[in-house]
């Protein structure tokens, strides 16, 4: 019954799905909720709320042209695998790298995706400040996407270094993000980005209170960014 909510959401967004896709969504949720009893992956333990806050929220960007044309995506601060795993299920032809600083979370994502036959997800352990300076990951992704909790200037310093010029960074923020957007514009420009638009979560009947800020990467990020670990959160760019 609960998955009917997700099916309605897919239909509203015109997302194609079949029994295999629905089975993977169902079993991934069950896996996360089971593991959550041992390790903190989510504060949401009720299935309907899980579908709204993790699944519907994650796939809200499905139709964005940036997502549609991307081939390689990184999810920074993935936590329990959101939005990376739901998007990977829907886009099996795209490659997703899910990054987090807590290895235990990533081990669970590895186990669950392997069990479910989700073959286009790779996990990456480390801090964004370090990985964003590595040749292997710096400016190697078409899209960076993040639901991590940090102000927009800090989050942009974590995320924009991963994005290729002409790629994009999608940041999930609360509806009252106007001040963050206004205060973050200078920092975003310093990092080689430019705010393109703000998209509201497109589910009118479900009290979804997020915006997705779309930031285009218009030039290379200067070599000094991201700064050393801990600095972007303690001293956000202004």
Automatic annotation (TrEMBL):
Primary location recorded for the protein, binned into one broad class: cytoplasm
Name of the protein described by the UniProt record: Ribosomal RNA small subunit methyltransferase G
Source organism of this protein record: Aminipila butyrica
Family listed: Belongs to the methyltransferase superfamily. RNA methyltransferase RsmG family.
Protein function: Specifically methylates the N7 position of a guanine in 16S rRNA.
Keywords recorded for this protein, A-Z: Cytoplasm, Methyltransferase, rRNA processing, S-adenosyl-L-methionine, Transferase
Gene: rsmG
Biological classification of the source: Bacteria, Bacillati, Bacillota, Clostridia, Peptostreptococcales
Residues in the signal sequence: none
CDD domains with a match to the protein in the record: AdoMet_MTases
Gene Ontology CC terms: cytosol
Broadest EC class assigned to this enzyme: transferase
Enzyme Commission number: 2.1.1.-
